[in-house]
What does this fold into?
Amino acid sequence: MTASVTLTGLNHWYGTFQVLKDIELQIEAGEYVTLLGPSGCGKTTLLSVLGGFVQPTEGRVLIGDTDATHVPAVKRPTTTVFQDYALFPHMSLRDNVGFGLRMAGMGRKDRHARAEAMLDLVGLRDAASKRPHALSGGQRQRVALARALAVEPDVLLLDEPLGALDLKLRRFMQDELKTIQKQVGTTFVHVTHDQEEAMAIADRIVVMNAGRIEDQGPPDRVYREPASQFTADFMGENNHIPGNRISTGIETPFGVLPGDPAITAGAAICVRPEDIRADTRGSFQIGNAQLRDVAFFGTYCRAHLVPEQAPDIVLTAYLDAGRAWAAGETVALSAEVEDFRIFDAEQK
Amino acid sequence: MMRFLPWAYLLVAFVFIYLPVGVLVLFSFQSGGLPVPPFNGPSLRWYETILSDPDLMGALRNSLIVALGSSAVAVTLGFLAAYGLARHILPGSALMRGLLIAPLTVSYLIVGLGLLIVLTRTGLGLSLWTAAIGHVVINLPLAFAIIYASMGAQQQNAERAARDLGASEMKVIVLITVPMLLPSIAAAFFLSVTLSWDEFIISFLLTRFDVTLPVEIWSLLRSGLSPQLNAIGSFVFLISVAVVLLLELVVFRRTRP
Amino acid sequence: MSRIQSRFQGWGLVAPALLWTTAFFVVPFVVMAAMSFASLEGRTLVWGFSFENYARLLEKAYLWRAIIVSLEITLTVTAVSVLLAYPLAWIIAFRVPQRWQRLALLLAILPFWTSYVVRSYAWLLVLAREGVVNQTMLALGLISDPITLANTRFATITGFVHFFVMLLTLTIYANLIQLPPNYRRAAMDLGANAFQTFRHVILPLTLPGIVTGAFLTFVLCIGDYVTPQILGGNTELTVPQVIMVQLGRRADFPLASALAIVLMGIVALAYLTSSRWLRLDRI
It folds into this structure.
């Protein structure tokens, strides 16, 4: 079971504070979408609106072709995996997973069979008689997933489902989630503040900030060609270089970046640390810079460099881990022109 | 219909809860001699009566002395025991905790009866002192339990740090433990004061000539309904409410994050 | 600080409280228990080991009737109080808006602070023949003559229920709000209506709290002398009332002690019954 979701003209206020601003979002049936943003950006509220726990002040929620705006959570074809899992502590895993089926009036035998099949899907069949408190965090997370999927929802909502897990388990569960989603084909909407998680898991990332959708698209597009400076900063590390619009392009401390961006005056220029090269072979020369400090990160060395042409800027670059770098040495830097992202400095 | 049901229930519940208090306070302003309808007032004559009644005012003073004195003793003993049991490894500590909590599980009547038997058998006689002893018996377990429950690892680390910096055991208690536990010590003390202030059966059994306020009210009650009882009841109620509100505003508000 | 010294200090700290409890609780209690096996010959007390007092409890109707009356009143009060307090706590926890909750709760338990003796007296005023309830019903034409409400078992139960509804509202409310709100959301999300959510999720999770509150109600109610003495009639007496009668007119301490021991036995029984429930749900 799966369905598309359409959100149109959503606005929501808590008292006088506007948490959602003009949200327009189309999610295809069977898509895996992550809502990504810092805490307080409105992503959890948006998920609550989808789940029917919050009635939006303005706007409509369509699930499939039906208007679900005023349908309460009980009757929606959505289920939620809560951040704290909300497993019922007085029930066995089997009863937890079978709860929704029981509410739907399914008989004990069918219910148990289906609950066990769902537990099998998440690899916990043998623990069916255990209580939630006997499980580890990752196992609880799987039970919550099985419970939400057992009622065959059209849309599954996940509220920071991996937030309570340690890093290693989190990476593992990301793959699990993705596999299970492919298996069941249900539309997944997954809220997270972890951009790596979002990139690892999503068909499409929706970046939110201060109640607005800043950007949306496939992970690689959002990372490489962010639509806003906020997105550029939120997705991974970035260097900031000030610039000014001139007739031939953008004037920077390191020379003119050719091109014709739609910018009238001040520009904010971003370049990723991995796009800065420690040689002069790039199409844009940054010039010599003094290596201030460097730290070994396994696949690269993260370095802070002070360019001679703009000593008030500190650039971050990921340098080749294959050679030894020393603080104080002078390095020539360059990058490709198309790796620079240019935003209007007025907008933030 | 279903929307209004909860509010209707709330309303009925509040009427039930406030009915006796409302009647009590209203008819304390009765000017006639009976605290029943019709209401003819308001008048403060019964308040004048109680405030000029030496027996009632004496009982009020006695109650205050017993409540404050017995609570101070109960909290001190309870604190020392909690500190000893939480910070030192003693053989049989579970048994000692059980023994200290035990009086909580027995009704006040039985605590009073046991003490009454011993006091009359040994010919020690009854007085305000014996009532206060009884109140310490019932409040000590509460004070101990409240303070013991709040002795966490956080204080223990602070105490270790103080000892490490050269503080003596006495200094540790006075400068570290007591200030850190002040909210729970205060809570234990005020709970103890309210319980003692209101306690009837132990005071009734263990006092003779000098009595506490509830006992004095009890003997007034034997002469029948009177607005005088309404006045003293309302008076005590207002004092209690004032103390509770004060606590809510001063002590507990500050301890909340 | 050496271990020995530490232990010595520990004992020193615990000793005062232990001595106090032993001298003024344990010793009197043991004496009282021994007293229950003693007997009275005329006005002199004869220590010994006889079951005479306990036998009297079974023989004399006014004694075993008191035990029955106490049990009936206490069980009724406990059941009625829980049934009335649960919806009240529920409404305050889940229907009253967050910012008014603390105020609503404070208001619901404020009359708790009326003096214990005075509270029963106030109910006497409310329920008297000339009291507010009778006068109101007369004025509304519901009754033609005042009905007897005070000095009945009904009055005793009303007085008790009033007190314990406030106590239980507080404890049940505390239980309800400490449930993570997502339990309710999860249940509804999975298709449970309000009643099913209550029946399958909220009730089982708050049961330990309810049983604890009910046990407290039972213990406080069965040991109380004041409420039945002021509000109940003279036609039936509870165990605490009979104990006080023995202490007063007859000075029959052995019989009073035996009754006190029986009272404790009932409480212990109630504890065993409820602890089974508690353990069942703490898993």
In short: Chain A touches chain C at residues 51-53, 72-76, 78-80, 82-84, 86, 88-90, 99-100, 102-104, 131, 147-148, 151 (CB under 8 Å).
